[in-house]
Amino acid sequence: MLEAKLVSEPLLLEFGNTRWKLARVTDQETLEFLGVGSELEPLIALIQSISAPYVAVANVAKPEHVQRLHDACKGRAEVQEAVVESGYDITLCYQDPSRLGVDRWLTLLAVRPAKESVAIIDAGTAVTLDVLSADGEHLGGWIAPGFRLMQEALIQKSSRLRINDEAPVGLIGKGTEAAIHLGCQASLQGFAAEAVLAAKESLQEYPDRVIITGGDGKLINKKALPHVPEGVVEERPHLVLEGLAQWIKHRRSA
């Protein structure tokens, strides 16, 4: 737990499906991580130990989490929740922008300043693809069960199966738990490989950048993605928080 701390910049909070991440942008415009966890009460205590002007929130979890945060921060800091909006030099392909997940939208905001064509592969609870052209057109994407969900779907159908959180050695499992782990990891790898090819088809050329983010991005073998030129693949595990920082920057300059 942090001691009482005064910061001049807003706090950035990502509420994911399984955990939260709290950070701030330093004077050097880099992310400084303040905490990560899964329980709400330690997060509330952490935020209350920091004096900040406001808290910017990206929430894909329960709406009541944000309400609880509002209550806890009352009189201390303003809580501002990011919502999907048109603009920001991005043309969304969704007729109803509110149907696009705020986490996916924020990853678009994070990469847009580079003015490059990008394929974003976000390996979290769900694994998603989003394709953005160099002129800011969102061409759409994919959504599939993430690595953990794939494993859970298997074990829910049989009392004999279970998940082993330790990564097995080798490419072929020599036990059921290892086989499940490696099989689901192969499915994740296949998603990423096909996502690159789909992005190439949509853009009519390979994207300038393939960005892999999310907690399970480390399970994707970047060197095994098909025909991707060297230097194109980049791992940025906290892209949603980067996008949240861009959202705040836009709001402050508006």
Short précis:
The chain has 254 residues and is α/β, with parallel strands linked by helices. 32% of the residues lie in helices and 24% in strands.
List the helices and strands and how they pair.
Blueprint lengths: L4 E2 L4 E5 L4 E6 L5 E7 L2 H9 L1 E2 L2 E6 L3 H11 L4 E4 L20 H10 L6 E6 L2 E7 L5 E8 L1 H9 L20 H28 L5 E5 L19 E3 L3 H15 L1
Parallel strand pairs: 1-5, 2-6, 6-7, 8-11, 11-12
Antiparallel strand pairs: 2-3, 3-4, 8-9, 9-10
Helix pairs in contact: 1-2, 3-6, 4-5
How would you sum up this structure, described in words?
- This protein is α/β, with parallel strands linked by helices and 254 residues long.
- It is 32% helix and 24% strand.
- It has helices spanning 40-48, 63-73, 102-111, 147-155, 176-203, 239-253; strands at 5-6, 11-15, 20-25, 31-37, 50-51, 54-59, 78-81, 118-123, 126-132, 138-145, 209-213, 233-235.
- It has a five-stranded mixed sheet with strand order 4-3-2-6-7, sandwiched between helices.
- A hairpin with a 2-residue loop joins strand 8 and strand 9 (126-132).
- Helix 1 (40-48) runs parallel beside helix 2 and helix 3 packs across helix 6 (239-253).
- The chain starts with a strand and ends with a helix.
- The mean pLDDT is 89.
- Belongs to the type III pantothenate kinase family.
- Pathway: Cofactor biosynthesis; coenzyme A biosynthesis; CoA from (R)-pantothenate: step 1/5.
- It catalyses: (R)-pantothenate + ATP = (R)-4'-phosphopantothenate + ADP + H(+).
- It is an enzyme of class 2 (transferase).
